[in-house]
Amino acid sequence: MNAASHDLAIALDTAQRPDAVPRQERATWKGALLLRLPLIAATLVALTALLMAAGLGLLTRQYLIEDVDAGAFQAMAAWNKSLPTLIQQDNVWAAYEALTSVAGDQVDSPPHSASIAVLIGPGGRVFASSDPTLFPTARPPVWTPLWAPGSLQVSSPLSVASTHPGLSPPIQSGNWRIYVSALRADSDAGVGTLVYAVSDALYRQRLRSMTRWITAITLLAVAVFVPIVWMLTRRMLAPLVRLQESMRRNGDDTRRISAELAARRDEVGALAAAFARLLEQAERAQRAEKLAAVGALAAATAHEINNPLGGMLNALHTAQRFGQYDDTTRQTLDLLDRGLEQLRNTAQALLAQTRPAERDLARQDFHDLVELIGPCQHERGIELQTRFDIPVRIPVAAGPVRQATLNILLNACHAAEPGSTLELEVDMLGDALRVQVRNRGTAPSAALLSDIAPTSFPEGSGFGLWESRRLLSDVGGTLKLAHTGGVTTATIDIPLRR
C-alpha cells in the first residue's frame, strides 16, 4: 500500500504540473502499478496455496501416525491376553506364531523389516521374537538395531493411559516407533515384557502418495487462481489508471472522466470526487483572483473619485444652506445634489468591497465614551448614570456604533437641562444590541423626531443625528427618537453579526 500511495502522489503531482514530469516517468508509474500490485496478489495466492499444502501434508502425516498407533495398540491388547499364558506354559513356538501373526515372519534384517515384536521372559532373556536372527531365543536382547538415542521422542502418557492401561507411551527412535507393555498373569504377577517396534515404512509410502496428490492439487489451484487474481487486480486498477490519465489532460476531458469515475461507490469514486472538487476549487481560485484584481482597480478608482466628490458635496451643501437663489437655481442645485449623492453612494459601495472588517464591539468601548463626554458633563453640571448589561464582547461593528453613540451622547448632553441626569443604558435584546440615551430637556423638533433617511442632509441643526443614522444604517441598525413627559429618549437597535 505504501508503494501505491507513492505512485498516487506522483499522479496527483502530474495533474498539477503535466509538463514537469517526463513521459518516461509517467509510463513507469503506470507500468509499475499495473505490474507490481497484480504480481504481489498472485504471489500471495501462491504462498497461501503452498502453506495450505504444507499444512495438509503435516496433518496427513499426523493422521497416518495415529493410524499406526491405533493398530499397534490393538495388537498389544491382543498379545497381553494370550502371551502371559504361553510364557507360563513355556510354549515358545506358540508365542512365536502369535508374534509373527501380526508382525510377520521376518526374512530381511532392518531397516527393511516393517515391524518387530520381542517377548522378554521373567529372567530378562528373549523368550520369543518375530525375527530370531536379530533377537535369538534364550539370549539377552541387544537393542542396537532399534536404538537411536539422538532422535528419541516419547509421546505424552495421556494419549494412551485412558484407553490402554499398563501400556507405555510410544517412543520414536530413529525410523522406529516402539511400544512397550508389561505382561501379567491372571494373579496380577509379572511374567515378562513385550516390545513392539513398527518402522515408519508402513505409512511412508502412503504419505508419499498423498503428498503427490496434495502437490498436484496445489499446483492446479495456483495455475487456475493466479491468472484470475492477476486479471481481477488489473481490472480493479483500471479506473485508477484512467483517473491518472485524465489528470494529465486539460479541459472538458478531465472533467468528464472525473465525473464518470466519481459516480462509483468505492475508493476510486471518492478519489475522483475529491479530484473534481480540487479542479473546481482551482477554477474558483482563478476566478477569485480575476475578481480581486477588478475589485482592486474599482476601489482605487472609487477612492480617487470619492475625495474630490466629498469636497464638491460640502461646497454644494454650504451654498444651499447659506445662499439666496431663485427657484430655477435652487432646482438646479438640488439636481446636482442628488446626482453627486448617487455618485458618492456608488463610490462608497465600491470602497466597501475592500474595506477591512470592523472589530467586534467591547464593553470597554462604552466606558471610553463615558470618558469622552466628561468635559461636557462637568461643564453643564450633569450627572451621568450608566448600566451596561452586556458581555465583554458583542458581535457588532465597533466603529459605527461607537461613533453614533458618541454623537447622541453629545447632543443629549448639550440639550439636557443644567443639573439634570443623563442616562446611558446598554442591553442585549435577543439577537440584537440596544443602546438607550435619556435626557430631560426641551423636545426636539418634529423633523428630528421623524425617521430621516440616511441620504437626506438636514437644514439647520441635527447634523449629528443625521450622521448617526447614516452610520447605523451601514451596519443594519436603526435610530429612533421619542419625547414623553419632558424626557427625550434615543434608542439604537443593531442586529448581531451572524
UniProtKB/TrEMBL annotation:
SUPFAM superfamilies: ATPase domain of HSP90 chaperone/DNA topoisomerase II/histidine kinase (SSF55874), HAMP domain-like (SSF158472), Homodimeric domain of signal transducing histidine kinase (SSF47384). It is found in: Membrane. GO terms for cellular component: plasma membrane. The keyword Transferase applies. The keyword Phosphoprotein applies. Residues 300-498 form the Histidine kinase domain. GO terms for molecular function: phosphorelay sensor kinase activity. It comes from the Bacteria. Its EC number is 2.7.13.3. It catalyses: ATP + protein L-histidine = ADP + protein N-phospho-L-histidine. Keywords: Kinase, Membrane, Phosphoprotein, Transferase, Transmembrane, Transmembrane helix, Two-component regulatory system. SMART domains: HATPase_c (SM00387), HisKA (SM00388). Residues 234-287 form the HAMP domain. Its main location: membrane. It is an enzyme of class 2 (transferase). The chain crosses the membrane at residues 39-59, 213-232. PANTHER family: SENSOR HISTIDINE KINASE TRCS, SENSOR HISTIDINE KINASE YKOH. This is histidine kinase.
